[in-house]
Write a sequence for this structure.
């Protein structure tokens, strides 16, 4: 009798495994990459881009610019491999000077066949750097997009109040104490016929010190939360992904308190948000390094609707940091750091890209 039970158990397990293995899934990579100073070589008198010109401090020549584009396109073409051989379907990016540099980027040999579209707005950032979203037209169809300003001021912060559902209709009041930073980019669209919302961020820097500047990033987190709340009021089942260089790690107040991101799926309540990169930070992993200390400033966070265990629609599978060996400095003072640009070498970025996979069971 015992042998029979044991045999039946093994047979049942084998059949169950076979069925599990026979399931097939559609997969999309969603990624974020801080391009680190993707400037063209033209001096823009309205921004502080002087050093990124042929006569500027960086000696930023046409040859260097073109090499930077080639380097970035190589990375983009490989993010998410080998689990997904396709390049990211959705790629949030930051530190881009204008739409023109993105037009040049998507024409690079490594990625031109992916036929990327561009969603970009000029931000009021004084350096002239913006956020944007690249998307593969074959799989994603945008239906609306808007840039939502973060209103912060010296010695005080303010999150834009807006009673309208259309978050793009925002009146900006000019204040001499305002700190001009990047807008938050909200994109709505259909990923293989499923509606999804993407927020692309580049939160205020730590200039002046982490503690002093923390309220600015907390305000950014509150604005993010406000956008998500507004979307969930319209559609309680809204699938929202917020991504970006947040200039804070997963444990900081801007993430844990202002945005309310949780590190475990089991702790993520209805209408809450889940951050898979907190667990990586606990293990000492990082997307950038400073004074030999690693942190994860680049993160992708999602609403509870994306982490449910039903793959009849697109859901979160797993996350990662793309840190291939060729992206790492191999010598000198910054050995082991991300291979960034220098006067002697055109690198990639001082940040590693991050990504998640969304999967859906094929019928």
């Amino acid at each position: 009798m015992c042998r029979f039970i044991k045999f039946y158990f093994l047979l049942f397990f084998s059949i169950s495994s076979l069925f599990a293995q026979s399931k097939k899934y559609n997969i999309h990579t969603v990624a974020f990459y801080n391009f680190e100073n993707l400037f063209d070589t033209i001096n823009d008198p309205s921004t502080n881009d002087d050093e990124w010109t042929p006569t500027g401090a960086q000696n930023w020549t046409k040859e260097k610019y073109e090499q930077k584009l080639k380097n970035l396109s190589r990375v983009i073409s490989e993010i998410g491999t080998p689990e997904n051989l396709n390049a990211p379907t959705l790629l949030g990016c930051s530190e881009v000077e204008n739409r023109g540099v993105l037009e040049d980027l998507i024409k690079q040999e490594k990625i031109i066949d992916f036929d990327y579209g561009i969603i970009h707005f000029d931000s009021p950032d004084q350096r002239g750097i913006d956020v944007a979203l690249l998307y593969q037209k074959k799989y994603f169809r945008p239906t609306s997009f808007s840039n939502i300003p973060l209103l912060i001021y010296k010695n005080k912060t303010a999150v834009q109040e807006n009673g309208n559902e259309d978050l793009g209709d925002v009146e900006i009041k000019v204040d001499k104490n305002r700190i001009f930073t990047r807008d938050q980019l909200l994109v709505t669209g259909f990923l293989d016929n499923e509606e999804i919302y993407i927020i692309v961020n580049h939160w205020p820097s730590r200039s002046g010190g982490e503690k002093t500047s923390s309220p600015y990033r907390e305000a950014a987190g509150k604005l993010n939360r406000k956008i998500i709340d507004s979307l969930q009021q319209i559609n309680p089942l809204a699938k929202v992904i917020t991504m970006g260089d947040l200039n804070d790690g997963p444990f900081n107040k801007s993430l844990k308190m202002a945005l309310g991101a949780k590190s475990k799926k089991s702790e993520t309540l209805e209408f809450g948000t889940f951050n898979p990169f907190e667990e990586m930070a606990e293990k000492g992993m990082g997307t950038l390094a400073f004074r030999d200390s690693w942190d994860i400033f680049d993160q992708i966070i999602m609403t509870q609707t994306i982490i449910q265990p039903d793959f009849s629609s697109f859901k979160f599978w797993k996350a990662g940091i793309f840190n291939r060996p060729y992206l790492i400095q191999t010598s000198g003072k910054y050995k082991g750091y991300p291979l960034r640009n220098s006067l002697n070498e055109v690198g990639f970025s001082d940040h590693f890209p991050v990504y998640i996979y969304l999967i859906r069971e094929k019928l």
Helices lie at 2-22, 62-78, 99-106, 210-234, 253-259, 277-282. Residues 1-20, 160-172 have pLDDT under 50 and may be disordered. The two ends are 40 Å apart (CA to CA).
